[in-house]
Write a structure and sequence with these properties.
Elements lengths: L4 H9 L6 H7 L11 H22 L5 H11 L2 H10 L10 H5 L6 H19 L1 H17 L8 H11 L6 E8 L6 E8 L3 E7 L2 H16 L1
Antiparallel strand pairs: 1-2, 2-3
Helix pairs in contact: 2-7, 3-4, 3-7, 3-8, 5-7, 7-8, 9-10
């Protein structure tokens, strides 16, 4: 964490913090003790979902609920939150225990995604909905506007492929788990019966399942 956290928060979010302790907590990993970002992450996750849903209904007034849901789930995913966090250099501000830092938690999708949500939670608490709405829209801008068509989630697409080709529904199996608790790695095998299978790795079970489904779709052509 930099010495001038207040300056970084002001530059990054456009808001000068009234309660700097909120932002210190938002950037403190669980490896540093009880006063960490978990509760602010819980709040920030809900705030992000609300603001993104509001924004999508404005941007795509003619789209049905199903298409909007696909956009929403894609844009608030852990991987996208981590990508946004990297673009804002959130990792450089994180307070991590020595072991967590040595294990690479500062560049983990799980940790960065959680920290991004906790930063949103802190900003909401400190500045209110209008300020955090502006911050999210600036930070996610190109990710939202670049999607002219609602993305199809790989697991949904794989299920549709199986149904259309009269195959069994896909199954997902965790075949390996490695890494420390704060930066786990899961390997998942996606399979359609004995017909075809593919494996992939991710920072969470859900992320690995999604990657495995995408890999299997690519294999199926």
């Amino acid at each position: 964490m930099s010495d001038d956290l207040a300056g970084w928060v002001t530059k990054t979010t456009g808001h000068a913090p009234a309660d700097l302790n909120l932002f210190e907590r938002a950037l403190t990993h669980g490896s540093q003790g009880a006063e960490n970002y978990e509760r602010l992450e819980f709040l920030g996750d809900r705030v992000l979902g609300l603001i993104m849903a509001e924004w999508l209904t404005e941007l795509f007034p003619g789209e049905a609920e199903g298409a909007l849901s696909k956009r929403l789930h894609s844009l608030v995913s852990g991987a996208v939150c981590a990508d946004v966090a990297r673009s804002l250099c959130v990792g450089a501000q994180l307070r991590l225990g020595k072991q967590a830092r040595d294990d690479g938690a500062g560049d983990s999708d799980n940790v960065l995604g959680d920290a991004m949500e906790s930063l949103i939670g802190a900003l909401y608490r400190d500045a209110g909905l209008d300020a955090v709405r502006g911050f999210i829209r600036r930070s996610w801008d190109n990710r939202v506007s670049s999607e002219s068509k609602a993305p199809q989630h790989p697991k949904s697409a794989l299920l549709e492929w199986a149904a259309a080709n009269k195959r069994r529904a896909p199954s997902y199996e965790v075949t390996d788990r490695s890494g420390p608790d704060h930066a786990p790695r899961f390997t998942v095998k996606a399979a359609i019966g004995e017909f075809a299978a593919a494996s992939a790795t991710g920072g969470s079970k859900q992320e690995a399942e999604t990657a495995a489904a995408a890999a299997l779709l690519e294999k199926l052509g």
